[in-house]
Each structure stands twice: as structure tokens, then as C-alpha cells.
Amino acid sequence: MNKDIREVTIPAIVEHDGIHSITVKLLWRCPVCGMPRGEVFPAKSYDGSRVLEVDGWHNPCGHVDKYSAVREEAASNGLNEPPGAVEQDDNLDNEEGLDSFSRKLRKEKALSIMRQMQLLPDYIEMFENEKVCIFESFYGYDVDQFPELKQKIRELECKHKCLVYAVTHDNTSFGELYDFLIVPKHEEDWEHFPRSEGSRHIVYAYVWNTTREECSEFGSVLIQAFHGGIARIV
Fold first, then answer.
1. Is 8:27 a contact under the CB 8 Å cutoff?
2. Domain ranges of the chain
């Protein structure tokens, strides 16, 4: 390996639960001033009381590498995926969607949210296997049964560089609603969601109002978890 390129292990997401790490290749130069980065040493990253063994380093130039910035650098430096490479998954990705490294980071965050909402292991396993569930009255179905929704997920992910991890469906007095629960493009937005209190969780979503399209929008929605499933509280 080129001496100016090093491989390090860092937290995959901010809320890593003490288990979610990722190994990436970096150009071993400070992204601010171009001077060599410091020597790597064993370090610990804390998520509350949960501890993750990772790599750390102190740059002699004094500029600090935050793990969030390192993840963004690794996603765009061309060292961790061939230029232009993406996952060719017909369910969610196409050539304009997330590259597979960025998708992996968002998937780790999505799995963390799903576990926090205490979804059934079967639903979590489906998402791990690239399947998204649509929930109606707390019961989940494979979205592959609904081609229009599958296409909508693809469009959202490609246009907004986000990741959809679940969908809820409701008929309301102001329209038929599909809430696409998403991990957004910018990592700095991830720390704000979910906000949980007991079995209720505020998450980020795109709300598709199929009755009144002009009312469709991005925003936060309140989700109720029950017996391993979820429903929006309208």
C-alpha cells in the first residue's frame, strides 16, 4: 500500500452502540493543510456507556480529524470504492443513487434506529437483506408487493441521496399518507433523530400525500411502536 495511504478503523456512525465500526482507507495527509497526519494508536469511542475499540491519531499540525469528517472523506476520496461504483440492487439503488460506502454508513444508522424502536427481529433481518417493510396498523409487509411504492423509494433515494428503512401507511381526513422513514443525506442531521420517549419516537420522514400531492413534504413524524411493529400517530 502507498505509504501516503493508511487503513484505519473508526465508528461507522455516531450512535455506534459499541459494535458498529468500519475500516477505511485514507490519504494520510491533513485535509486542511496537507501536512502528514499523526501516528495511529488504539483508542476508544464512547456511545453513552458503550465502548468501541477504534483507531485514533493526533495530527502534528494541530488540526483535529473528527470521525464524522473522516467518514465523509472516506466516502468521497475514491480509495474505498472504485470511482462511480454503486451497489446494483434493483430494490433501492441505481447509477444515480448512493455509492455503496455511503449506503453502508446510512444502513448502520437505520439499523440502530430500528433496534431503538424495538422492531421485530424478522423486520430488521429483512432490512439487512435489502428489503423494506410497509407497516399498516403495526403489521409489516414486504414493499416488493407494491411496485409503485418500490419505484417511489428508488426515486427518493436517488434524488435526495437518502436511505429509506421503513414505510407507514394511513388514511386520514387530509389524505392518504405514506411516510417514508429515512436516514438523510447529511450526517450532521443524524444526531437529531430519533427522539424517543418510551414507545414513541420522533423520526425523519418524507410524507407522500397521494390525495393532495402538493401537501407532500419532508419533516419529522411521531411513530408509535407496539409489539414489534410501528404506526404513525396522526
1. no
2. 5-76, 100-232
